[in-house]
Amino acid sequence: EAHLAESGGGLVHAGDSLTLSCAASGFTLDYYGIKWVRQAPGKGPEWIADIRDSGLTWYGDSVKGRFSISRDIDKNKVYLQMSSLKSDGSAVYYCAWRDSIWGITGPTSLWGQGTQFTVVE
Q: Which of 43, 34, 30 has its CA nearest to residue 5?
């Protein structure tokens, strides 16, 4: 059974750096693209980055230049390295199959449980 599990959340200060991890099981990352989506309190989901099965990466405008998505095929993990964190970065961060639909889990849509971090001034 396919499964995604995020980790690495917590409390950080503005300007700090943090790396989130997304551990995949039940499938291999070289055949699946993975995306990171965040949801801030009271707001809708925001796509922030994805890495294709080919390894190509894409970023949302709000994080471009500050966040970096990468993967380790051997460990079957995807990472989101974040730097120069801002207070508006406080959110629950989810990893998912790239074509997943928000809130839907099924044959083509898979989400992790999310990891939360808060950025304080």
A: 34
Per residue in 60-101, pLDDT (tens digit) is: 999 999 999 999 999 999 999 999 999 889 999 999 999 999
Res 4: pLDDT: 97
Q: Rounded to whole angstroms, what are the CA distances from 92 to 12, 32, 72, 121?
A: 14, 22, 23, 18
Phi, psi dihedral angles at 52 (to 5 degrees): -80, 170
Which pLDDT tens digit goes with each residue over 22-66?
999 999 998 999 999 999 999 999 999 999 999 999 999 999 999
Q: Is 96:72 a contact under the CB 8 Å cutoff?
A: no
Structure-token pair, residue 13: 């200060």
The residue count for the chain: 121
